[in-house]
User: Fold these one by one.
Assistant:
Number 1:
Amino acid sequence: MFMSMSMKPRTKSAGSLPPSEEPVFSPQWWMGATEELLPDSPIQAPRASGEVHAISLKTTVSRPNSASSSPRASLSSESKSKTADSINEFGTLDPSPYSEATFHQFVTMKKGSLKLNTFKRTHKKTSSRDSEQLGGTVTSSTDSERQMYAQERLDNFRWLSKLLGSYADCDPLTEKDEVDHKTAAKVYDICQFAELVYSAVPVELLVKHSKALEEADILQEYRHALGDSIFVGSVNGAKTDLTAYVVFRRSTGQLVVSISGTSKPKHMVQNLRAVRTIWPGLPSSEHVDRTAKDSIPTVHSGFLTLYRDIKSDLEQCIGDGIAAHHPAELVITGHSMGGSVAHLLSMDLLGPNLTIEIPKKMTLATFGAPRTGNAVLVQHFRKLVREYKGQFEEYSVKGYNDGVVSVPPRSLGYVHFCQRPIYAFRRKMYWVPDGQSEASLFHVENSDADVSQENSFPRGGHNYYGRDLEGMRRTLEGLHAAGFPEKPDWQSQFWKDARKGGDLDRAKTKDSLKP
C-alpha cells in the first residue's frame, strides 16, 4: 500500500548493524479531494486552500493490552489524562480514544496541497514483541540479515504494527497450522509476479531478455517466473499512474494479472482518501436500500479511484490474453494497495456484467493488503464467489510486523475480505484460525521453524514476503541505470555499480533463500 515512498538515505555501510531509528511513514502530498460520499458521512477530507496554515497536532495511538515497558511508550501525565479526537493513519479524524505512544504531526497546507510530516521516533533494535516469538528466544542476525537491514531504506511499517496492530485472541500457531507445501509453493510462486510489478525496467524487457539476465547471474530468484512467461501487455492509469501487467505462463497455463501497490506520490494521495463510497459494481437487479447505511456495500474511495483508472484497459488486456493463450487458470495478484485493487478487479470479473469469458479456475492472491471496504461489500464479494461457475481459490497473506494490514482501522467501518488468511512468519506460512481474520499478529510456537537459514527475515515488515522486495527493486534500478538492455556494456556497468554500492548479494538474490 505505502511501500515505495522513499525515506532519507542513511549513511551506514552495507555491513553495519541497522541503525536504532525506525523509518516512519512520511507521505509527501495530499490533495484532500472527495467524491461520491455516503449520505451524512461523519468523515470528511479537508479542503485545501491558497492560504498557508501551520498546525501542530499531538495525537495518541495505542494497542490493546500494551505493556508499560513498551519501547514506544513514553507518555507524560498530561498526555495520559487527555482524550481527544486523533488523526488516524489516513489523515481523517478518528474519535476513538488512544492511550499508549504519542507522536507529533505537523501539517502545512499551501497552494492547494497538504504536506504531512511525521517525525522519526527511536526504539530498541529488538522489541519485546519479537522476543515473544519462538519460545521467547531472540535469535542473532546472520551476516546476510545484517547487510539487508543496513541497506533498508523503504518504510516497512513496523512502527504502524506496534501502534495499531493487535494480537489474535487464540492459541499460538504451531506446525499443525502450517500451510501444506504444495499450497505454500503456489503462493510463494505467485508472489514473484506481485513483486516484479515494481520494476524500474519494464516487465516486457525483463521477460524478453530473461536469458541474458540468467547468464549474467542477475535476478536468479526470478529466473523461472521470467523465463517461463509470455508477455501479454501492461497498463498505466492516465490520471493516477497506477501500473499493472499481464503475462501467460507456459508451464502452468496461468494468465497472471499483477497490480502495483503504492509507488508514486499520486498513489499516496489516494491512500489517504479513506472516506467510504458506494461500490458501483452492483448489478441493477440487486436491490439495496440506499437509505440504510448498514445495507450499502461501500469501498475506500481512494482505492476505487485507482481501480477505475485502469479498469477498462486492464480488462481489455485480460481479454486479449485469454483469446491468445486460452489459459486454464486466471491469477489476480497484488502487494499492498495493489491487493485491494486486485479484490475490486476480481469482483468485476466475477460479476454478471462482464463480457469476457474467464477460465473455469480463478485464483486471487494478495500480500500485505489493507482493509478495503465494509462488511456489506465483503458479503457481496462472498456471494459472487459462491455463484461463480468454477473453482475459486483465495490467498490473503499477512506478514509479521506488517502494519499495513491493520489499516484502515475497524473503527471506520472497514473489514478484510478474506475469512481465513495466511500468516507469514520467518519463511513459514500458517493458516489463521477461524474468527481471527481481523487480527494482524499471532504468537508462533513452532519447533520446526527453520531459523538457521541465511536470511529468515526475523524483523518482518511490509517488504518481506518470502523475498527481499527492496533488494530486488535496487537491483532493477541498477539495471535501469546501467542501460539494460540497450547499451552493449550494461552488464559490466551494472556489476561495477553493484560493487561500488556493496550490493552484490542483493543483485544475485540466490535461490538459497527460497523456503
Number 2:
Amino acid sequence: MRWTFHYLPIKIRAPLAAALLLILVGAIASQHVLSRLSKTQDQNLQSVATVFLTGLSATLEPSVLNEDIWTTFAILEQFKGDGAAIPVNNLVVVDASGIVLAAGDPEKYSNGSALPDTIQSAGDVNKVSLVLTGESLWVRRDINYQGQPIGSVYAEFDVTRYLSERSSAIWSLFIGNALATLLLSIAGFFLIRRMLRYVSTISDYMKGDNGHPEPIPEALFPSDRNEFRELFARYNQLVSAEEQRRQAMTRLSEQARLVSLGRLSSTLAHEINNPLGGLLNAVDTAKRYQDSPEALGKSLELIERGLRTIADVARGTLDFYRTDRRAVALSTSDFEDIALLLEPELRKKSQKLVRHIGATDPVLADFSNGLVRQIVLNLLLNASAATPENGTLHLNVTEDPSGCLIIRIADEGPGLPADSRDILLSETPLNPGAGLGLRLVRDLVGELQGEIDILTHENGGTEIVIRLQPDSEHGYAA
C-alpha cells in the first residue's frame, strides 16, 4: 500500500490524503462523542442509584439491626413498587456475614441462604458503570449503624433504557458522521484536485513527450491573474532559456569538432604533401624513362603506395567528420584510424601511443563509431598536449561481463587542472574559447548514457576512464 500510494500522481495523492485525513478526524470525533455519552450515562445512573439506595438503606437500618425479617421484606416490597427513576427488578438484603435476611423474590433468594458469587461481586453504588453490562445491573450499598457495617442491600436495576439510548446514539452518530465525513471527503478531494490541476499541468509539460520540458500553451494559463499564472510564465521562460542553452551547447560541440579538425589540418596537409611529392617524382621518372619497363614498374609502385597513404588519411578524416555520427557501428579498425589521425601530432613531440584493444567486434557493434571516435580522439589530443616530449600515451579498450565498453586513456602529464576537471564532470560554464574539447567529450558521453571517472596516479599522469552502456536496440550499420 505504501509503495502504491507513493507512486500515485500528486493530483490523486494529495486529494486522497486529505479525504483520508477527514475520515480519521471524523472517527476520532465520533469516539470522543461516544466516550462523553458513556460517561454522562454512568454519572446519571450513579446519581439515581445513590439516591434510591441511600433512602432504602436508611429505612432498612432498624429492621436489619433487629434482624426483623418481615419488616425488612415489607420495606423491600414498598420500595420495589415505589416507581423509582430506574426500574428495579429485584432487591436483596444480607446481614454482616453475607447471609440473606430478606429478598423481593424469596423463592429465588431464600432467607438464610448465601448470595451467588455473581451478585456478591456487584460493584459499590459509587462505582456504577454500564460498560460490559447486560440488560440489568446489580449494585451494592452497605448499611451502617454508628459507623459499623451491619449488612448490605443489593439492587438489580433494569438498564435497557440506557442501553437503548446508547444504541440509538451510536447508530445516529455513525450514520450522520459517516454521511458528513463522506460528503466532506468528496468535496475536499475535488477541491484539492482542482487546486492542484495547475501543478499537474506543469508536471506533465516538464516530462514532455521526448523527455525534455516543453512550454505550456497560453490557452492553458489560468484565466485570472494569480500565482499560478505567474508561475506558468516563469516556467515557460525557464524552458526557453534551457532550449537556448542546449542549442548553444550544440553549437559549441560543433565548434569543438572544428577546433579538433583544425589542429589536425596542418599536420594532415603535411602528411598528404609528402606522398604528393613522391608521386610527382614518380610521374617525372616515368616520363623520362618511358622505354624502361623496370623504371616504369618502380614508378607505378611508388604512385600506388602514395595514393594509398593519401586515401587512408582522407578516409580517417572523413569518418571523423561524418554527419550521420550514430549511423555506423564501432569496430576495431576505428581505433586504427584514430591512431593514423593522431600520428602526425605525436610525431611532432616524439611521442608514442600504446594501444590495447581487448573489446571484440560483436561487443563494439552496439556502439556508434562516430561518437566514440570523437570522444577518444579529443581525449588523446588533450593527453598529447599534456604529455612532455618523448612521452607515452596509453589507450586501453575492454569490455565487462555486462557488455559495457570501458575506455581508458592515460598520459604522463602533470595532472588534469581543476577547471578542466570541472568541465569534464559538471555543468561548469565555459570561458570563451576554452575547454570546448572536454565539454564535447562530456556531452557525447552523456548522449551515450555513459559515465566519466578521472584517476590521478602517484607517479604522475592522469587516467580518464569512460564507461559506456551498450545500445543494441539502435541497429548500427556494419
Number 3:
Amino acid sequence: MKQKPLRLAGALGYESADKRIYILRLVGVAGSISEAARAAGVSYKAAWQAVDTLGNLAGTALVESTVGGAGGGGARLTEAGRQLLLAAAEVAHAREQVLARLARAGGGVIQVGGVAALGLRTSMRNQLPCTVKSLKA
C-alpha cells in the first residue's frame, strides 16, 4: 500500500499561532481590530480574542485601543507588539529552513537538535528549546 506523503508543517500544528500573528500584523497595518478581522476573514470577536490571547501569552499589551468617536476608534501596536512580530518572523524563517531541510532529506528521520520540540509547544513563550538548570522551592 502506497503511503501518503508526510505533511510536517500540518502535523507540527502552527496554524493557530500563525493565524494569531497574522491578525496582529493586520492590526498594525489597518490600525483597527475590526478592519484586521475583515481582512483575515474572521469575526471581530475572533480577532479580538487572537490579539488578547497573544497578549496574555506575551505577558504584556501588544495593542493599544482608542475609544471610537465621530471617526471611530482605532488600534495600534505597542512596542512589545512590534517586537513580537519581528520575533515571530524570525521563528517562522527558522521553521521554514528546518522544514526545507527535512523535505530535501526525503521526509526521513534526521536529527534537528532541539528544534523538533518546537512542534510540541502551543504558546509563544515556549518556542525555544532549553534545559532547566535548577529549581528553587
Number 4:
Amino acid sequence: MVFLNKAVLMEYPYSMSLLTLQQVATVLLLHLGGSFGISQSPQFSLKIARKLLPLSFFYNANVAFALASLQGVNIPMYIALKRLTPLAVLVTDIFTGKGKPATQVALSVMTTGFGVLIAALGDFSFDLVGYALALTSVSFQTAYLVLVERSGGEDGMSSTELMYYNALLSLPFLAVLIIFTGEAGTAPTLLFYKIQSIYFFVIVALSLIMGIVLNYTMFLCTIVNSALTTTIVGVLKGVGSTLLGFIVLGGVEVHALNVAGLVINTAGGVWYSVAKFKRRKSKSSKSMEEKPLIQIGSTK
C-alpha cells in the first residue's frame, strides 16, 4: 500500500485528493455490496455518527500526516518510524486504565522501538520535516486504533460499519483540508489529464482497492484482537516492505545500522507474537481447569 501511494503521489502530488478518492470509493463500494446482497447494507444513524466523529478525525489526521511525510522520507525509514506506534499504544493503554502489560509483552514492544532508533541512526537522508510529520502521524494513529478497539470491542460494531462511518465522516474533514491546502484549484484538472494514462489509471485503481482492503482488515484485526496486536502485525508486514524498499526503489544507501535495527525490530515482533500466544494458551488452560464439571446424572 505504501508503494502504491508513493507511486501515485509521484505522478499526482495531491495527498488530500487521493485520500478523498479512497473514502468515496469505500462508501460507494459498501452501498453497492449491500444492493447486491454481498454485504450488509450500511444504515446511517446520527447518534452513531456523533459518537464516531473523533475516530474519523484521528484517522484522517493520521493518513494526512503519513502521506505528507512520504514526500520527504524514503520508504524504509518511513516504515521504521511508523513502527513506533506499538510503543505509543502500549503507553496509552497503561495511562487509560487498561492495566500494565505482561513483562514479556512490554519488553518485546520496547525491543521493536529500540530497533527503530538504531535503524534511524543509519539514515543519511535525514529530513527533519519528514520525520516530524511521520511522528505526528504515529500519535494520531495511536489514538485512532485505541478508539477502533473501544468502538468495536465494547460497542459491538462490525468492521464494515466502522469502515462506512469512518469513510463518510471523513469527507467533510477532507473537503476543508483540500480547500486549505489549495488543492481544490488544480487537483481536479490534473486528475482529469492524468487519468487518460493507462499506467496512472491502474495505480490509482489499485490504490483505491488496496486502501479499502487494508482498512477492512485493520478494523477487523483490531476488533478481534487488540490495538497493540494490530500494530505489531503491521510491524512484521513492514519488514517485507522495508526490504522491498531497499531493493526496488533504489537511491537508498544501505548502512550496517539500518540492517541491525531491522533485525532487532523483527526479533521484537516475533518475541511479541510468541509471548501473546503463550499467554493466551495459559489463560485457556487455566479456564478449562477452573470450569466446574457438569453432572450427567445421579443415582438415588
